Amino acid sequence: MARKRRRLFNPKKPSLFQRARSNFLTGLVIVAPVSLTIWVIWASINFIDARVVPLVPDVYNPATYLGKNIAGFGVIIFLLFTAIVGALTKGIAGRQFIKWGESLFDRTPVVRSIYTAVKQIIETILQQSASSFQQACLIEYPRRGLWAVAFISTETGGELPDKLGRDDMVSVFLPTTPNPTSGFLLFVPRGDVIVLDMSIEEAAKLVISAGLVTPPTTAEIAAGKRPAPPQPAVARKRSAAR
């Protein structure tokens, strides 16, 4: 009995391999995102430099005087050029030139499809909407009794509320796990949506981690620690009986 008690109160220590594996996985969580971020930024800089720097005249290229290329010089030129183009297109002459260029593209069969698709993608990415993905929520999906984390996009407009016979519909994006960039667009009655207190970023982490990363509640943040998990119903009945 004494040996059994010692085993219960003194669990076996992890082996050297288990500790090394745990340390490696912990370090991987920190090192991998940082390394990938640096790699993506560096690859983007080299990609832009390789295509912009050859277009710069040698007189204005610092590599002519320094004897080596400066990383990021092409990015600076690209940003300045884009800002100048944006400033010029704000005027009357610039807007007329843009309209003339777009009309020229519209008359070209293949170019028209490519230009329209690329323009719509860029406008969608850069569009800032105050009501887009401002709240995380819970909806019952794929059936009653099962809940999924989703994001409220906006109030459902157009002919959809008329066809459905109700005006309290909201457009909800239901992401997939672990890739939240894909998902389903659902039109849900507002009464069936439970708005969450967690932010969009916290909800995204919850989806990406498949439920492993749970954001703290308001009470946990105020107390500085997570509260004890709730007891099962059976345990509550036993404690109440005592």
Rg, rounded, reads 28 Å
Number of strands: 5
Largest sheet: 5 strands, antiparallel
User: How many separate helices?
Assistant: 10
Percentage of residues in strands: 5-15%
Structural class: alpha+beta
What key phrases describe this protein's structure?
single chain; 242 residues; alpha+beta; SH3 type barrels; 2 domains; five-stranded antiparallel beta sheet; 13% strand
Question: How would you describe the overall organization of this protein?
Answer:
- This protein has a 5-stranded antiparallel beta sheet with strand order 4-3-2-1-5, with helices on one face.
- It contains 10 helices and 5 strands; from the N terminus they run ααααααββαβββααα.
- The longest helix has 37 residues.
- It is α+β, with helices and mostly antiparallel strands and 242 residues long.
- Helix 2 packs across helix 4.
- It has 2 domains: 88 residues, no CATH class; 86 residues, SH3 type barrels.
- The two termini are 28 Å apart.
SSE blueprint and pairings:
Blueprint: H1 2-9, H2 16-52, H3 63-66, H4 73-88, H5 92-106, H6 109-126, E1 135-140, E2 147-155, H7 160-164, E3 169-175, E4 183-189, E5 194-195, H8 200-208, H9 218-223, H10 233-241
Helix pairs in contact: 2-4
